């Protein structure tokens, strides 16, 4: 073997050594990245915006894979967690679903029933009342006979709101030409049987029904002597 051939063999050996070193370096980098990133897990991303207090379903989310170490401790990794849950606030498209974004839907207690009535949006809701709120229900009645004073009554106290529906345009009844078209919101309450009767009666016969939001921690109890109001008796 002449000198030129020896130089060629040496260059081939050096090239092979360099290639092995480079390959080992790549494997080392990959191993290091894997050790830093860790295993991947399933998370869920919103397909579109979700309004507050909307019931959640699997079709509203898409599955994605990402390193477990990059997820927060509140990330939802199993869609069974959304069963019976509603959105706490507006959920934005593309966001990862977190457990602190959702809460359980309010449940009925024994002896309660769901009752939904339409509440005038301008006088009864004003965007302040949401599922889970506690309200007192006021109704105003005209005098039954001419000369009989109108009255305002507290119909129900501590009514628990289960759901607030969408704004709905209402048209006046055919036999009520004095009432203008307005907008109302269906409100669903959890009520006892007697309170359900009271609130249904008020919706049917009261001139106006209003909801008064009870502050958190307050009982909302109104003394019996203060549940009926007449202007003439106000001192």
Report what the structure shows.
- This protein is of the alpha+beta class.
- It has helices at residues 3-37, 121-125, 193-205; strands at residues 40-46, 61-67, 85-87, 102-104, 113-120, 134-141, 151-164, 168-170, 182-191, 208-213, 228-229.
- Strands 5, 6, 7, 8, 9, 10 and 11 form a seven-stranded antiparallel sheet that branches.
- It is rod-shaped, with a radius of gyration of 33 Å.
- The relative contact order is 0.13.
Number of helices: 3
* Low-pLDDT stretches: none
**Average pLDDT reading:** 79
Could you give the count of β-strands?
11
**Global geometry:** rod-shaped
Helix-strand sequence: HEEEEEHEEEEHEE
Provide the structure class.
alpha+beta
Largest beta-sheet characterization: 7 strands, antiparallel
Radius of gyration from the alpha-carbon trace, in angstroms: 33 Å
Structural domain tally: 2
Beta-strand content estimate: 25-35%
Straight-line distance between termini: 124 Å
Task: Quickly describe the structure.
The chain is 23% helix and 30% strand.
Summary tags:
alpha+beta, seven-stranded antiparallel β-sheet, 23% helix, 235 residues, Type Iii Antifreeze Protein Isoform Hplc 12, single chain, 3 helices, 2 domains, rod-shaped
Q: Could you outline the blueprint of secondary structure elements for this entry?
A:
Layout: H1 3-37, E1 40-46, E2 61-67, E3 85-87, E4 102-104, E5 113-120, H2 121-125, E6 134-141, E7 151-164, E8 168-170, E9 182-191, H3 193-205, E10 208-213, E11 228-229
Antiparallel strand pairs: 1-2, 3-4, 5-9, 6-7, 6-10, 7-9, 7-11, 8-9
């Amino acid at each position: 073997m002449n000198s030129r051939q020896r130089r060629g063999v040496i260059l081939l050996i050096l090239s092979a050594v360099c290639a092995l070193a480079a390959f080992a370096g790549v494997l080392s980098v990959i191993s290091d990245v894997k050790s830093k990133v860790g295993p991947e897990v399933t998370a869920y991303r919103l397909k579109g915006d979700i309004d507050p207090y909307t019931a959640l379903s699997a079709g509203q989310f898409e599955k994605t894979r990402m390193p477990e170490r990059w997820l927060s401790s509140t990330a939802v990794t199993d869609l069974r967690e959304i069963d019976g849950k509603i959105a706490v606030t507006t959920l934005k498209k593309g966001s990862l679903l977190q457990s602190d974004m959702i809460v359980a839907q309010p449940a009925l207690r024994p002896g309660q029933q769901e009752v939904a009535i339409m509440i005038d949006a301008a006088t009864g809701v004003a965007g302040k009342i949401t599922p889970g709120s506690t309200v007192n229900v006021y109704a105003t009645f005209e005098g039954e006979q001419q000369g009989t004073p109108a009255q305002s009554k507290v119909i129900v106290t501590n009514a628990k709101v289960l759901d607030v529906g969408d704004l709905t345009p209402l048209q006046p009844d055919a036999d009520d030409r004095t009432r203008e078209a307005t907008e109302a919101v269906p409100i669903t309450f959890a009520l006892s049987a007697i309170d359900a009767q009271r609130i249904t009666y008020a919706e049917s016969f009261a001139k106006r029904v209003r909801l008064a939001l009870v502050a958190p921690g307050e009982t909302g109890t109104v003394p019996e002597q203060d549940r009926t109001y007449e202007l003439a008796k106000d001192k």
